[in-house]
């Protein structure tokens, strides 16, 4: 088969294969004094373009699962495949955003975003164009030179998001990215995140403690048990991709899923 024919033949198949495949994953942390089973037999497939939210009580292994997908933590049992390849070391072709935005205090917005390009040796002109596009996409225009301490928490998270998306990763992993924000800013970021997901077509896996955030953002919501983390249920509310905030919150598909999620997590574990 010629290369072109091979590409054509493999083209459509790519979209029907999971972009992330977690199979029978268990994670045991051992130290001299103790042993912790953080994850127990977790299997999860994420298809290209999906927005998967992972909700579960504190300490159930959500962050560990993301770090394993990113290749930052090596599993004890089971395997993870990203883009069809087995993950055995830190993955470069992903974006990662954390609860704390981890911006460099002495660099302005644009330069914090371009840090990603410097670390990867990206073509400078292409990176700058891309940064401009993302600054516009996230509403940071006019703040290109502002230092992190001159920005609100929501703006800092937007900068971190731009940095995570600069190299156009097909997969974006987000660990409680809006957890440190006040309720209103968090809502605003949820609305923007939904739009950015639709506009970029990025596959997103986002860990959250918040019931409304999990249901508003997720095309699929994966619910985990207390440690050792297992997947107890997956919710698919069937909401349209484009979601207006207040109408979505009163949509029966949203309220049913949110109620179920609350029941599964138990009121004592829920932070909103
Ligand atoms: N590097 C490590 N060494 C030892 N134990 C660890 C390590 N990383 C995580 N753990 C343990 O694994 C368990 C799961 O931790 P993890 O941070 O993944 O949970 P989480 O669901 O993300 O929690 P939270 O919602 O509170 O952030 C915890 O008991 C934690 O103490």
From TrEMBL:
Keyword Cell inner membrane recorded: no
- Keywords in alphabetical order: ATP-binding, Nucleotide-binding, Transport
Q: Which residues form the ABC transporter domain?
A: 20-251
Q: Which residues form the signal peptide?
A: none
| Superkingdom of source | Bacteria
User: Coiled coil located at which positions?
Assistant: none
Instruction: State a single Gene Ontology molecular function.
Output: ATP hydrolysis activity
What is this protein identified as?
ABC transporter ATP-binding protein
